[in-house]
């Protein structure tokens, strides 16, 4: 959906702002009911991972989205 695409782009941009690497968005809309897109990335260490998570959550929260879960 256009909303899912906008959220995925926002999440990827927020992750990139915190120097995440290997950012990939995977369309799972035809395979899963719970979500349309997975956004995956990596970071150099645990502290940077937490920074990326916080930035993504803040960006999506500003768009009116709440995470169901984090992994």
Task: Give an overview of the whole structure.
The chain is of the alpha+beta class. It has helices at residues 2-17, 46-62; strands at 21-27, 37-42. Helix 1 runs antiparallel to helix 2 (46-62).
Instruction: Tell me the β content.
Output: 15-25%
How would you spell out the order of helices and strands? HEEH
Biggest sheet, strands in spatial order?
Answer: 1-2
Which structural class best describes the helix and strand composition?
A: alpha+beta
Largest sheet: 2 strands, antiparallel
Overall helicity: 40-55%
Intertermini distance: 23 Å
Rg, please?
Answer: 12 Å
Q: What brief labels describe this structure?
A:
globular, 71 residues, alpha+beta, single chain, 46% helix, 18% strand
TL;DR of this structure?
The chain is of the alpha+beta class and 71 residues long.
Topology of helices and strands:
Blueprint: H1 2-17, E1 21-27, E2 37-42, H2 46-62
Helix pairs in contact: 1-2
